[in-house]
Amino acid sequence: MRRRAFLAAAAGLGAAGLAAMGLGIAELMSRGPQPHYTFADDFDGPAGSAPDPSKWAYDLGGGGWGNDELEIYTSSRENSFLDGNGNLVIRATRTTGQGTTTYRSARLKTLGKFSQYHGTFEARIKLDPQQGTWPAWWMMGANIGTVGWPKCGEVDMLENFGGSPDVLTSVHTPKGAGVATYTKRGSTAVNDTWHTWRVHWDPAGFTFFKDGAQYLDVGPSHLPNWPFSSGVPMFMLLNLAIGGAAGSPASTRFPVDMLVDYVRVW
User: Fold this and answer.
1) ∠ CA(144), CA(228), CA(56), 5° rounding?
2) How far apart are CA 174 and CA 161, in angstroms?
3) Which of 16, 27, 86, 234 could join 139 in a cystine, given CB atoms 3.0 to 4.6 angstroms apart?
């Protein structure tokens, strides 16, 4: 729901009405005056249209993505599109034929379009937690093309593995000269309704919120080789993976949709 419409409607709603919209009192009170957004996508547009190409690019292809994932990422409107109701849809599909099964999905990123050092990053997302699915909203350092992963650092605001009742939130820093990482993580409950996820990044580290309620802090004292105080900005990714750490998708009901109401940064 757009902010202006929300504020107009909220005046006539009680707590029960806000809950039905997937909004808690804590989240409402935490919003305060509208900030000056450095990035904002409310995904307004005709049904079936593409995400704004001035804000989003695509990772394409398959090969497991280092995690034994099964999907092939595409830029097709079958796998990422606006629904005409102010939402981005990332859709994972399964097709079978001639003895083979093919999974397709989408992975959107702001690399080359937008990145920011410090600030607040927020998204309102609705998941369909199922076995074999792995939706995520996350960030990596914009210097990934020169230093590689994991030296660029990675912050996973939201990951749901295989339909578990929790969202996993993680911060990864490099470990030695290899590709291993040091990780600090926390979890919070999730379901198939709308929730607002936020991370605030400043010199003290990262503070994570769900629906306005804080649930995790991660700072330089928690992890060695901290790459997040170097002045390098981070870019965002949204994707819906299949298989890998999420387990087998044999029982998954396809298509599977990840809905995003908005992404905002300030």
Assistant:
1) 45
2) 23
3) 234
pLDDT tier, 3 (very low <50, low <70, confident <90, very high otherwise)? very low
Catalytic residues: 154, 159
Q: Which residues contact 44 (CB under 8 A, 6 or more apart)?
A: 2, 82, 86
CATH code of the domain covering residue 208: 2.60.120.200
**Residue 5 within a domain:** no
3-state DSSP assignment of residue 132? coil
Can you give the pTM of this predicted structure?
0.88
- Compute the distance between CA of residue 16 and CA of residue 262 in angstroms, rounded to an integer: 23
C-alpha dist (Å) from residue 241 to 127, 174, 258: 13, 23, 10
8 Å CB contact between 210 and 195: yes
In a domain, 4, yes or no: no
> Is 80 exceeded by the pLDDT of residue 29?
no
Task: Give residue 192's domain range.
Answer: 25-265
Residue 97, pLDDT > 50, answer: yes
For 31, the token pair is 């919003």
Q: Is residue 86 domain-resident? A: yes
Mean pLDDT value across residues 153-178: 93
Into how many domains does the chain fold? 1
Element holding 48 (H helix, E strand): none
Instruction: List, in order, residues 6 or more apart from 258 with CB less than 8 Å away.
Output: 89, 90, 91, 125, 126, 127, 128, 135, 238, 240
Residue 100 β-bridge partners: 97
